[in-house]
Specification:
Layout (H helix, E strand, L loop, with lengths): L1 E7 L5 E14 L2 E10 L1 H23 L4 E4 L5 E4 L1 H7 L11 H4 L11 H8 L3 E7 L2 E11 L5 E10 L1 H23 L5 E3 L6 E4 L3
Antiparallel strand pairs: 1-2, 2-3, 4-5, 4-8, 6-7, 7-8, 9-10
Length: 205
């Protein structure tokens, strides 16, 4: 018998007790039982604290907007957050144990640009740009190290830069349109530094 149960102590405190008992001998219909009662309140409390810390970590992990995964040394996914599951359009049990290129097809993971290997070789964060569907992502891979400096795995983060790139493209196009308009004006237009009088821009009149 091996049981754990709660009691209320004389100090009106809840205690967890582990009660172990076993039959050691039986003679003439009478059995001898040996048992041990142990106060396991502290270990129970530690387990609860670990569970709470684990839940806080998982909640934080899942709250991140960026698709994120923890990889082993073979680049297999050990853990992923909700954003990555949403991007892959797969449940967690179809992601864990597989490689990124298997769950996110059409990305940089299918090519020589995959940053996993370069992060292992250079032992530092490496990045790559990849397209997934109609969205563009910056993929960053950070190696994880143990106390001896050995790589134990990788952190894989995907940041959606689609809107940022669209804004940059629109700014470049707007700038080019502005220059085209200035060049079409039949008059000299220039911009100069107020202190040095150096000409910074001049149209093509």
């Amino acid at each position: 018998m091996d049981l754990e149960y709660r009691i209320i102590s004389s100090a009106n405190e809840i205690k967890w007790i582990r009660d172990k008992a076993s039959v050691v001998a039986c003679e003439e219909g009478a059995c001898k039982i040996e048992g041990l009662m142990e106060d396991v309140t502290q270990s129970r409390r530690s387990e609860k604290e670990l569970e709470a810390a684990s839940k806080r970590w998982q909640d934080t992990f899942n709250a991140m907007r960026e698709p994120l995964a923890l990889l082993d040394l073979e680049y297999r996914i050990l853990q992923c957050n909700t954003a990555l599951k949403r991007l892959a359009r797969l449940p967690e049990n179809q992601i864990i144990g597989r490689r990124c290129r298997e769950v996110i097809p059409g990305s940089a993971h299918d090519s020589r640009d995959c940053p996993n290997q370069s992060a292992r070789t250079d032992r530092r964060r490496m990045t790559a740009i990849t397209d997934v569907g109609d969205r563009r992502f910056e993929v960053a891979v950070d190696p994880q190290f143990d106390e001896q400096g050995n790589i134990t795995g990788f952190i894989h983060i995907m940041s959606d830069i689609t809107d940022r790139e669209k804004s940059a493209r629109a700014l470049r196009e707007s700038h080019q349109t502005f220059l085209t308009v200035l060049d079409s004006i039949d008059a000299l237009i220039y911009v100069a530094d107020m202190d040095t009088h150096e000409i910074l821009f001049m149209n093509r009149c």
